[in-house]
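Before relying on records like the one below, remember that each one covers exactly one chain. Contacts with other chains, cofactors or solvent are not represented anywhere in the record.
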Amino acid sequence: MKIQAILTDIEGTTSSIDFVHQVLFPYSAKALPEYIKKYYQEPEITTIIAEVRQEIAQPNASLDQIINTLLDWIKADKKFTSLKTLQGFIWEYGFKNHDFQGHLYEDAYRNLQQWFNQGIKLYVFSSGSEKAQKLLFGHSQYGDLTYLFQGYFDTRIGNKKQLNAYQSIAAAIETNPQNILFLSDVVAELDAAKDAGYNTMLLARKKLPEGNQHHSVVTSFDEITIF
């Protein structure tokens, strides 16, 4: 296969699931109530609040109801764009305050750097907001790695488990799907990308997910061959 672009997931692929669920999510849950109450009049936060009210069909929901809804969504790991956007703002404070660093697997860092040096275009597709993606790579334990990526995609372009998202990304980066490699640890995401014509590889760092029938399996980036 002639790979011109690599699209990668983050959680479980380039970065530890534990970092997301044991560091980032608890941090956002703890900081969220105070953050909302402090910044609810800021335009970006006002927009998020309006989106939450629309999602729960309660146009007059109080600030406390909004906060409780968002906390419930965090517990349930909901992928609502409004929540992901808000978490991006909260994590920005945490990263810049040096409360934590973005985690990257060493093999992911090394190979992403190698592919970048080889002229392969790199992109990110994550359910986390574009802002959160840039924060993670911009404040990693290897320093600022945002220069590696040509672009970042989140759920605004589509659901990660649906075909149209991958069609839209291919159109956005002006690359034939047959020349794109998508990396993820989630079979349903890979299925959707495969249906869109992408090459796919399943990252099974700890165990092989159930239901895989169509994707090559690797346990680290070191096993990925693209030439």
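The chain has two domains: 5-16+103-223, 20-96.
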